Task: structure prediction
Amino acid sequence: MKEAAFDKVANAYDGEFSHTAIGYLQRKEVWDYLHQLFEKQEGKTLKIVEVNCGTGEDAIFLGKRGHRVLATDISSGMVQVTSQKIAENGLVEQVSAQVLSIQELGTLKGQQFDLLFSNFGGLNCLSKEELKELAQVLPTLLRPNGRLIGVIMSSFCVWESLYFLAKRDVKNAFRRRKKEGVVANLGASEIHTWYYSPQTFARFFSNTFQLETIKPIGIAIPPSYLNPLVVKRAWLLKGVKKWEKRLNRFQGLGAWSDHYLIDLVLKK
Result:
């Protein structure tokens, strides 16, 4: 079961991703985009629901900026770690955490949010059919002009393909292309994962949302499993950071990056 798989890695997740050099750099690019969006809101307090919140790094970031956040995850282990961070940061009035799967979002009907947010592949746990169902539920949860901002794993990653091709592993070099998805390793467990191009993902929501923007996340910065390669070479870490800023201004590169941020606005 998905929840059991994520429970097993909850206590190790920050050390293996969030607090690594690559994890920090990729997350900072997401936070920079959110910060610019919040500045346009001119100090307005947003009500946000986060799905697949993981260990709560983003919920804490959002709460510290004055927004009210409901952080949800299918894993009770992840929610436990998130709840601990909420208490440690003195954010119990701003942020709450709840065990809730994406498929159960409909139980929140009656509440109205300004933003549904999901970072680093949370929505890649959904099949095409499940994404279509989500597209039908969201308009009942979002206020007028509400947003869906997701950070999605792309169906092609140039870094990943070059890495596996260098190892003569053709099968894994293009594994993200598989329409039926792949079984990805999560610690000692396995999770069925689907990869979507920006155009395909946006199409699932096109009836009720309009596309605001796409931002590559990890076009110069490599996937997290290459962190050991990067941190041993200070010049490389500095270089990918510099080039990420230059390249992620080009929306089209979202189809080539490790992840891409997609910002969708509810149609009037």
Observations:
- The longest helix spans residues 21-40.
- The longest strand covers residues 142-153.
- The two ends are 38 Å apart (CA to CA).
- The chain has a mean pLDDT of 95.
